[in-house]
Amino acid sequence: MRAILLLLLLYPLLEIATLVTLAHHLGGGVVFLLVVASSLLGIWMLRNQKLGALLTLSSVLRQGQQVSLYSLLWPLRYALSGLLFAIPGILSDLLAILLLLPFKGPTLQNVASPAGMADDVIEGEFSRVEPKGQDQPPRLH
Question: Which regions span the lipid bilayer (predicted)?
């Protein structure tokens, strides 16, 4: 718990240090424009989050049976990277870029396929027994 608290306290200091260092090397105006541009990109991504879901759906339809776990999590990664772009700072921008990289993950079998459903069938019989009195609920035998 202390490590998470320490990271939360150090993160803004690291962001400020990277911004100051970058401003020293590139100039304050360039860094300011970079921060404003990344924030606008993040806001645009959060507004157009439906695009991420649409891209995931089209990818799943094109792949057929094989679906990657990372492609199913694409809308979540897209929204989180938009939020990280909206936060001013260089480290958050780098994390957002890492989230947008197309990683290949383990494939999942399509659950709705007929081959996958054949093993999940449980066969059985039942008969309904009518109650003899009014106060007994119906039972299955």
Answer: 29-46, 79-101
Contact residues for 82 (Cβ-Cβ < 8 A; gap 6+): 41, 42, 43, 44, 45, 46, 49, 96
* Cβ atoms < 10 Å from Cβ of 99: 20
- Please list the residues that pair with 68 across neighbouring strands: 107
pLDDT tens string 22-37 = 999 999 999 999 999 9
Residue 96 belongs to some domain of the structure = yes
Does 97 map to a domain? yes
Q: What is the pTM of this model?
A: 0.63
CA max distance for the chain: 90
Host domain of residue 103: 2-109
Q: What is the pLDDT of residues 50-71, one digit of tens each?
A: 766 777 677 666 766 566 677 6
CB 84 within 8 A of CB 46: no
